[in-house]
Design goal:
The complex is a heterodimer of chains A (14) and B (256). Chain A has 14 residues and is mostly beta strands. Chain A is 0% helix and 14% strand. Chain A has no helices and one strand. The termini of chain A are far apart. Chain B is mostly beta strands and 256 residues long. In chain B, a hairpin with a 2-residue loop joins strand 13 and strand 14. In chain B, helix 3 runs antiparallel to helix 4. Classes of the chains: A mainly beta (14), B mainly beta (256). Chains A and B meet through strand 1 of A and strand 10 of B. Strand 1 of chain A pairs antiparallel with strand 10 of chain B, so a sheet runs across the interface.
Chain lengths: 14, 256
């Protein structure tokens, strides 16, 4: 869907 | 090895019910702080984090860290065999290929023993930073569930605005639009029925209602829900239990 961000753009992978 | 006893099977049954539509396979990480889980949905838009603390168990023993790779649909099938009031004991070896579950009724005259096959799950873990949120709203979980369900009938997305006037949930869809505004209204007699809003700064964000409706399946875990929001970061929804929590994070929709 347009404009839906993913969590990966906010939280780093451990 | 792991040995963990819950006085009431309903605790784990409710947790699994709350998250099984969001994630399918996940590791239950067992260590000396209890049983924890962190998993993202397939689209990496939502994340669930769960912690059942040792204090919540009638007996808890875990000598070394053990990851139980569990298919939640399979676990739910086994948990169906437990009555809500049954005492539940979980047991696993240090490198287990199965989880043993024992359910005992309160009369102590029925013992049910099940084994659930485990899987190797290579799961990504996200580092979630400590966040000072711009707005934190605590409200009855049933009311939040009703708002999400009602608005989801009109639209795919909800705009959430927190101001000093209150918190406003609004949406626009093909058949019309809708909005619900909640004002701060602490209930001294029954705090779980009140709404409190802590505002550091005004917040306005848009989220997919499909995920919020899904998170509300955890409403049975707690009478209250805490919603934490900051501009342009994922929202946090927390259902606090007596000795643990289920938290959901949801990435916002931006610029559409």
């Amino acid at each position: 869907p347009s404009g839906q961000k993913t969590l990966l753009s906010f939280f780093g992978l451990k | 090895m792991l040995e963990a006893r819950l006085e009431q099977s309903s605790v784990l049954k409710k947790v699994v019910d709350a998250i099984k539509d969001l994630v399918q396979d996940c590791n239950f990480d067992c260590n000396d702080s209890g049983i924890q889980l962190q998993a993202m949905d397939n689209s990496h838009v939502a994340l669930v984090a769960m912690h059942l603390k040792t204090e919540g168990f009638a007996l808890y023993r875990c000598d070394r860290n053990i990851a139980l790779g569990i298919n939640l649909v399979s676990l739910q099938k086994v948990l169906r065999a437990a009555q809500n009031e049954d005492v539940m004991t979980l047991k696993a070896e240090d490198s287990p290929d199965a989880l043993s579950l024992v359910f005992e009724n309160s009369e102590n005259d029925r013992i049910s023993e099940y084994d659930l096959k485990l899987m190797d799950i290579d799961q990504e873990h996200l580092g979630i930073p400590e966040t000072e949120y711009g707005a934190t709203v605590k409200m009855p979980s049933a009311e939040f569930q009703r708002i999400c369900r009602d608005l989801s009938l009109l639209s795919e997305s909800v705009a959430i605005e927190a101001t000093k006037e209150g918190i406003k949930f609004s949406c626009t869809g093909d058949i019309g639009k809708g909005a619900v505004t909640l004002r701060q209204n602490p209930n001294v007699e029954k705090p779980e029925l009140g709404t409190t809003i802590e505002l550091q700064e005004p917040v306005a964000l848009t989220f997919s209602l499909k995920y919020l409706v899904n998170f509300c399946k955890a409403s049975g875990l707690s009478n209250t829900v805490t919603i934490s929001l900051s501009n342009e970061v994922p929202l946090l929804i927390e259902y606090e239990m007596e000795h643990g929590y289920v938290r959901f994070y949801l990435a916002p929709k931006i610029g559409d």
